[in-house]
Amino acid sequence: MPRSSQVVAPSIVMSKPPARLAALDGRNLDPEMDVERRLRIVHLEDDPNDKEIVSAALEQQGINCEVIDVTTREEFVAALEQGTVDLILSDYALPGFDGLTALSLATRMKPDTPFILVSGTIGEEAAIESLTGGATDYVLKTRLSRLAPAVRRAIEEVAERKARRDTEVTLERERKFLRALLDSLDAGVVACDQDGTLTLFNRATRELHGMNEQAIPPEEWASQYKLYRADGETPLETEQIPLHRALKGEHLRHAEVTIRPREGTPHTLVVSGQPIIDDGGEKLGAVVTMQDVTELKQLERQFQQAQKMEAMGLLAAGVAHDFNNLLTVILGYCQIAQSRLQSGHAVLRDLEEVAKAGERATNLTRQLLAFSRQQVLEPRVLDLNDVITDVEKMLRRLIGAEIELVFRPEKELGQLRADAGQIEQVLVNLIVNARDAMPDGGRITVETKNVDVSGRPASESRGPSKAEGLKGAHAAQIAAEIPAGPYALLTVTDTGSGMDANTASRIFEPFFTTKEVGRGTGLGLSTVHGIVKQSEGHIAVESELGNGTAFRIHFPRVSAGQDVSKSTVRQSQPARGTETVLVVDDDSSLLGLVSEILRLHGYTVIEVASGETVLTMLENDGAAVDAVVTDVVMPKLNGRELVRRATKIRPDLPMVLMSGYVGDNAEALGSLLGPRVAFIQKPFTPEALLGKLRDVLKGSAAPVHAEKPGRQASGAAGPPAGRLSPPPSRR
């Protein structure tokens, strides 16, 4: 075909508008392309006749297009830069420019635009070179019937490539979304392919196993995937691993296993899994999920322990009533018998041994009640130094000569409100515990101090001393566990054998002891813990194996100016009287004992077996009765209800309530106590009973305010000081 050397300006040849681009083979080539939009084609050709022929061929074969004719390199580049180009047609040989160079430019500037060579001179080698260089196709000018099919095929390929890219982008986004979703889960997810190679670990799985995200073949599972049975000791064989079982077709639900990461503590896992199967039934792999239930298991164990402690507390409280009745009878008649014998009588020594055994049994009962927090508190405003001074001699006798007892009191120690007898019991139990830790002798230091909540001394003259021989910043730990406010700190430190961390974590558990059988009940420190919590205090232990132990108890201080009571006030002679007293108890042994004690000390006694009889007597001849001594736990009409109904008949009637167990009556009973109504805990001595009776007859019984239990701080259970202790909470 003849060529013209004349430079022709680019022109736009418009074909007649066809119906739709979708008419090309009846298909829409680009789903996102407007079907009414024409293709924008750049045609690089220097021969005007050839331009006309190519445009005519496109029009005749139904290609809806806009053809931009260019001749030079500059025009070609400008056309590519002006906007969207759907297709490039190019001659192979041009003056000063050629099709392969144009292909190179197009590949660089419009890499996704199809490029078709339309030439009459291209040979086989040139055609192969152009296809290798990135050309989509080539069409000979002598066979332009192939042009339209080549254009359609090129446009279709572009659409397909775009669809594939869009699909790949969508899949990549979905993959990232799924990965983010899996990594956001606290449950571990792990999957393998059909060959058993681990291909997916989410974040939780990697953290549980301490592993990097990498494919792991089945033969390396044993070395990388550390799983054990629920006992945490028996390794799982490969066939027992949940993922392996799921790969074999098993559907697992809530299987429990233990995992031991390379570093850190073991974890208890609940695992579920199943095989992955496509629509055709072909197995693609397996997946399992792992839920870390370590904390849940710990909470379950703590709850079970709490249930055990509650059950033990209920058992202790339930036994206490009958047991204390028996002890009251034993000790009461023992003391009466001793009082009737002359000094030096041979039976006195036997009675003394009976009394000692009864006192030991009494202490054991008190420990059980302190543990279950079923005691009645008689709080006073106390000086802790006075309490310690009063029992110091007894404490020295307890520890023996081989152990040194050092008392370091704060000179102006703040006052606290507590039950003096219970504080003494705390001291005795701690001192005995320290003594037993020093079989070869040592030193026990009892120290008192004013501190604020952070552990700093109320007076900045000196800070809280460290336990002798011990390490660690304990004061900071205590400050984080107790509420703000001023405290009186009691510290009991020994230089004994100390404890390891595991033992120290269990010392307040009831019946836990490190002593050999027969040397301890395991109730001493649990009793201390119960008393401290009952008094709104806080107790902590600091110990190091081989370097001694320190117990620190923070008692809330009360405001200055209140009357301070001495810890114990005992009368040298039992109080006597001449009044008429109704004694009420359904237990004939106790009824006889109390009546005997009162008669021996001058009182006129009327014995009554039921509360209903008391009410009848008060209604008929109430003026003849000066006081009532009654048991609390009785059938039909209990002591609490008897007080309410009796005081309606005689509002100022003096009454003494006796019980070894108050149970659910604690709050209601406490609301009745006042100057004319007192409570005495069984077992009691004759002197204690006589003293209580004289107090109510004089109207000087200690007031005890009953309030609803509450105001518990830092996990402390039990009522505020000065209240009747409620039964254990039932959750």
Protein traits:
731 residues; Helix Hairpins; Beta-Lactamase; Rossmann fold; 26 strands; alpha/beta; six-stranded mixed beta sheet; six-stranded antiparallel beta sheet; single chain; rod-shaped; 20 helices; 5 domains
Q: What does this 3D model show about the protein?
A:
The chain is of the alpha/beta class. It folds into five domains: about 10-165, 3-Layer(aba) Sandwich (Rossmann fold), CATH 3.40.50.2300; about 185-290, PAS domain (Beta-Lactamase); about 305-370, Helix Hairpins, CATH 1.10.287.130; about 385-555, 2-Layer Sandwich (Heat Shock Protein 90), CATH 3.30.565.10; about 580-700, Rossmann fold. It is built from 20 helices and 26 strands. A six-stranded mixed β-sheet has the order 1-3-2-4-7-8, sandwiched between helices. The protein is rod-shaped and about 150 Å long. The model is unreliable at about 1-35, about 455-480, about 515-520, about 565-570 and about 705-730 (pLDDT under 50).
